[in-house]
Design a protein that fits this description.
Strand content: 5-15%
Distance between the termini: 27 Å
Bound molecules: glutathione
Order of helices and strands: EHEHEEHHHHHH
CATH architecture of the largest domain: Up-down Bundle
CATH topology of the largest domain: Glutathione S-transferase Yfyf (Class Pi), Chain A, domain 2
Strand order of the largest sheet: 2-1-3-4
Oligomer: single chain
Number of strands: 4
Number of helices: 8
Helix content: 40-55%
Number of domains: 2
CATH class of the largest domain: Mainly Alpha
Length: about 210
């Protein structure tokens, strides 16, 4: 399989972190990384539009030559192929809890950060939009606060003792915030989680900021 990606872009990064976590834990993912340079607008080339008509990343090319888009769908697909070690829980309740955390990480942190970055210093060259930046700046602390509360029992990762897709999505969002140099305070427990997460080998192999 081929994974079309670009460093720092948050949606490819969340899948890249997932792949790195699984590989570090011993899963044979057999996925080759292919860079599509967003800065050079390679995602708008006819070659890439053939992979994803929306011209976005990430894309997973399956061994039968077909393409899968949408980061969460790609992760869910890979997780079905490689369930060990589990990164979306094992029981119905655990899986629901991890997906709940991932939705909060995406909608409460990654999306607001992405909207602020694109409204202030868009790497895709989008025009500045102070109203959008101010709106998402107001929403971001709520998402961060919710996740901070989950960590208040001292757990190492968002869902407990082991990394899950929720950690990957959260860290992909935070890295994009560092890229965009946007200002936000990480509450205490999240700051602890952030330091621990980023010093681990799977994170070091993917994150550049
Ligand atoms: N919902 C999609 C979002 C994909 C997306 O917006 N990707 C960004 C990179 S993080 C992209 O390719 N942007 C290029 C563009 O919109 O022109 C997913 O989760 O994969």
């Amino acid at each position: 399989m081929r994974f079309y990606t670009f460093q720092v872009a948050p949606n490819p990064t969340r899948v890249g972190l997932y792949l790195a976590e699984k590989t570090a834990a011993g899963a044979a993912m057999n996925v080759e990384n292919v860079i599509v340079n967003l800065a050079k607008r390679e995602h708008r080339s006819s070659e890439h539009i053939a992979r994803n008509p929306l011209g976005r990343l990430p894309v997973l090319e399956l061994d039968n030559g077909s393409f899968l888009t949408e980061s969460t769908v790609i992760v869910e697909y890979l997780e079905e192929l490689h369930p060990d070690p589990p990164m979306i829980g094992t029981t119905a309740e655990e899986r629901a809890r991890v997906r709940e955390l991932e939705r909060i990480a995406e909608l409460g942190v990654l999306v607001p950060i992405a909207r602020i970055v694109h409204a202030t210093k868009s790497p895709l060259g989008l025009p500045p939009n102070p109203e959008i930046a101010a709106l998402f700046d107001k929403l971001l602390p709520e998402g961060l606060g919710l996740l901070n509360d989950k960590l208040s029992d001292g757990r190492a990762f968002l869902a407990g003792d082991c990394p899950t897709i929720a950690d990957c999505t959260l860290q992909a969002g935070l890295q994009f915030g560092r890229y965009g140099k946007i200002k936000f305070d990480l509450p205490e427990q999240l700051a602890r989680w952030d330091l621990n997460y980023r010093e681990r080998d799977p994170a070091l192999s993917v994150l550049v900021l």
